[in-house]
Amino acid sequence: KQEVTQIPAALSVPEGENLVLNCSFTDSAIYNLQWFRQDPGKGLTSLLLIQSSQREQTSGRLNASLDKSSGRSTLYIAASQPGDSATYLCAVTISGSARQLTFGSGTQLTVLP
Amino acid sequence: NAGVTQTPKFQVLKTGQSMTLQCAQDMNHNSMYWYRQDPGMGLRLIYYSASEGTTDKGEVPNGYNVSRLNKREFSLRLESAAPSQTSVYFCASRDRGTNQPQHFGDGTRLSIL
Questions:
Q1: Nearest CA in chain A to B40
Q2: Confidence class of residue A94 from pLDDT cuts 50, 70 and 90?
């Protein structure tokens, strides 16, 4: 059974700092990995999707990497801002006709002004 | 540009009552999903529908039923609510193709007393 782990569960950094969020998964047989952002009381917003054949994806200040063989992904946030404060979840798409997602429990990020 | 719409946003039930959570998407997506999110945990898949006319169990289906009414709508029913079903419920949809991201609604916050 695929298990996804995110460490740390919570992270607090001063504004302007570069930071890395970590995600690990137990089964390398994935189609892709997604990073989501969740604001309090809201749904999930997809930030980046990395296909299994890719090593990284970039969007603005965000860069996500994928190392399938070691079962790891990182989300790098450059020059963090208070508006980046949210919970960040990673999820892997496992085999199956409906492409179900298996989620980690998230990292709650607070960027202090 | 509604995306995925869930109703209601909040609901309080008494143990043993029944309820149907509604979900509709306007993106002509084939696949739809129901997840629950509990404190400190990632999202867990309850049921999914790979295409109109099909439904399948996910990781935590006990106590729930679903109906894929048409391509747009996918409902989740609690026949006899239990306190353990207190959670935030998210609906998602996804277009065809292995590397299409899932799009999420804003959730239904359900409390069962």
A1: A105
A2: confident
